[in-house]
Design goal:
One of its GO terms (cellular component) is plasma membrane. With 287 residues, this protein is α+β, with helices and mostly antiparallel strands. It contains two helices and twelve strands, in the order ααββββββββββββ.
Length: 287
C-alpha cells in the first residue's frame, strides 16, 4: 500500500538548486564586475534595445499617421482650390462677355446716332452650325418692322442682309457666304464693283473694278448706298491683296471683312423707307 506524501516537504530538486544559487552568489560576491555584467548590464542592454525598438516603431507609426493626415488635408485643400479656380474662371468669362457686349452696344449706339433712316436693334439668337449656307438668327421679325433685304451691321461694319422673315425672328445671310453679293466701292475711286463671299474663313472678292483704278493694299471698302440695302459709307472691309493679269479688264481684289461672327451679340438692322441715296450716313463722303 502506497504511503501518502507529506504536504510541507519541499521537492528534492529545490535543495540542489538553492545550493548552486548560493555558491554562485558567494562567488559573484568576490567578483562584483562579473555580477554587474551578468545581472545588471546584460538585462539592461537587452530591455533597453527592446524599448528603443518599440519607441522607434511607435515614432515611425506616428510619423506615417501624421503624413496620412497631411495628405488628406492637402487633398481637401486641392479640391477647394480647384472649385475656387473654376468659379473664378466662370466669373472671368462672364466679365469678358459683358465687356464685349457693352463695347458692341456702345459702337452700335454710335452708329445709330449717325444714321438718319430708322432701324432696329436686335440680338443674335443662334448661328447656323452646319456646313451649308452661313446664316444666323435674330430675335426680331416682321412684328418689329424687319423686311427681306434689310441690311444688318455690327459694331465694325456690314454683317449681311435679311433673307427670311418670320413674325418674331429673322434669318440673315452672312457676308462670307458664297451666295452673298453687294455693291461696294473704294473711297477716292469713282468706279464701284460687286463684293462676293467665298466661303467661311476666306477673304471676300471685289469684282469689276477697272484695271486702271488705283487700288492698293489697305484701302477701305464700303457700301455705295445705291443698292437699296445699306446707306453709303458703311465699312465692309479692307483690301488684302490686288492681283493683275495681262489682257484682263478688271482687278482681282481680295478683301478682309470688318466683322466676324465670334462673340457677336447685338446687331443693327436698317429699315429704309426710301432709296438710300436720300438717306446716307451723316458725315459720309459723296462719291
Amino acid at each position: 500500500m502506497e504511503k501518502p506524501r507529506l504536504q510541507g516537504k519541499p521537492p528534492r530538486i529545490l535543495v540542489p538548486f538553492l545550493i548552486v544559487l548560493l555558491v554562485v552568489l558567494v562567488i559573484l560576491g568576490f567578483y562584483p564586475r562579473l555580477f554587474r555584467a551578468m545581472f545588471v548590464t546584460a538585462p539592461e542592454s537587452l530591455f533597453g534595445g527592446f524599448l528603443s525598438g518599440v519607441s522607434s516603431g511607435s515614432r515611425q507609426a506616428g510619423s506615417l499617421w501624421s503624413n496620412y493626415l497631411d495628405l488628406v488635408a492637402v487633398k481637401k485643400e486641392n479640391e477647394g482650390l480647384k472649385k475656387e479656380i473654376a468659379l473664378l474662371s466662370r466669373r472671368l468669362y462672364q466679365s469678358r462677355d459683358l465687356f464685349f457686349q457693352n463695347a458692341q452696344m456702345r459702337a452700335l449706339l454710335s452708329l445709330r446716332n449717325r444714321v438718319v433712316t430708322p432701324g432696329t436693334s436686335c440680338s443674335v439668337m443662334a448661328i447656323n452650325p452646319t456646313s451649308g449656307h452661313r446664316t444666323f438668327l435674330l430675335d426680331c421679325g416682321s412684328a418689329d418692322g424687319i423686311k427681306e433685304k434689310s441690311g444688318v451691321v455690327g459694331s465694325f461694319g456690314v454683317l449681311g442682309y435679311v433673307v427670311r422673315v418670320f413674325p418674331h425672328f429673322s434669318q440673315v445671310l452672312w457676308i462670307e457666304d458664297t451666295y452673298f453679293a453687294l455693291e461696294a466701292r473704294i473711297p477716292g475711286i469713282p468706279d464701284s464693283g460687286i463684293i462676293h463671299g467665298q466661303g467661311q474663313g476666306k477673304s471676300l472678292r471685289l469684282k469689276y473694278l477697272p484695271i486702271l483704278a488705283a487700288v492698293k493694299v489697305g484701302d477701305p471698302v464700303e457700301t455705295t448706298g445705291e443698292d437699296g440695302i445699306f446707306p453709303q459709307g458703311v465699312p465692309i472691309g479692307s483690301v488684302r491683296a490686288v492681283g493683275k493679269r495681262e489682257k484682263m479688264l478688271f482687278h482681282q481684289v481680295q478683301v478682309v471683312p470688318s466683322e466676324h461672327l465670334n462673340d457677336l451679340h447685338y446687331v443693327y438692322v436698317f429699315s429704309p423707307e426710301h432709296h438710300w441715296s436720300d438717306h446716307q450716313l451723316v458725315g459720309a463722303q459723296p462719291k
